[in-house]
Amino acid sequence: MSSPLVSIALCTYNGEKYLAQLLDTLVAQTYKNIEIIAVDDNSSDKSFNILSEYASLYPYFQVYKNDVNLGFTGNFERALTFCKGDLIAFCDQDDLWDPQKIEIQVKAIGDNLVIYHDSEFINEQNQSLHQKMSDLLNFYRGDDPRAFLFFNCVSGHSMLIKKQLLPDAMPFPKGFYYDWWLAYVAVNSGKIDFVPQCLVKYRQHDDSDTDVLKKKEAENDPHRHKEMGQIYNERLKWLRQCAKFKKNKNPEFVYTLYTLYYERVNNYFSPALAILMKKI
Questions:
Q1: Which SUPFAM superfamilies does this one have (predicted)?
Q2: Residue 144 domain-assigned?
Q3: What is the domain-level CATH number for residue 179?
Q4: Residues 213-248 pLDDT 10s
């Protein structure tokens, strides 16, 4: 199948400010065998109205609205249930897509379960911040699950996945990033790859749930050690989730790593140390 159907799963929530700009880049894709599945998470602004206007103009554009707010991950999970394509791309409400994004990724995916790409950061005025995602993250290609036990380099907006990945990955585990989970499942079931081009202009702003630069600033905060207990616990929960995955390539390794990490966390964050750190 040389031109498979690609489903673009777009989730919105109170995103009227940048939404039309994004939608213009979606309908301008050079790859034409697409469907756009837009699910609005019960917005209180005009997001749903904007989506409906585009749906009235483009027959491949479908719009749904949740009766209650499902949250970021839950909304994407629902959007996937409407996707009919053999390939699925994930879309945030405030970015700008290169017109060749889908075409390039379809050509590049080959026998990989996931193909992702680099992205350029922009501000609220669409101006470049002169920084790329690859400046912050080491991109990975291959099939080794160990690469995703502590870090994730695959952003949802950059992913094109094969639909065959979903039965093993869904439902998405609660409390974790869906893109990280999809990447982990993919390298256990097959392999992933990336293309070096920046195919999305990735907007950073105060209202964004995916402001990567802000998160990086927080990581470099000299006072961040006071939050390390919470960070270690989140990593521990992630390792436990990975260890529970039934199709692990090396379940013994993951379980052993989880056990050792559990012991480290419990020994390091003792009550006495907690009292000491509060005084710092």
A1: Nucleotide-diphospho-sugar transferases
A2: yes
A3: 3.90.550.10
A4: 555 554 455 555 557 778 888 999 999 999 999 999
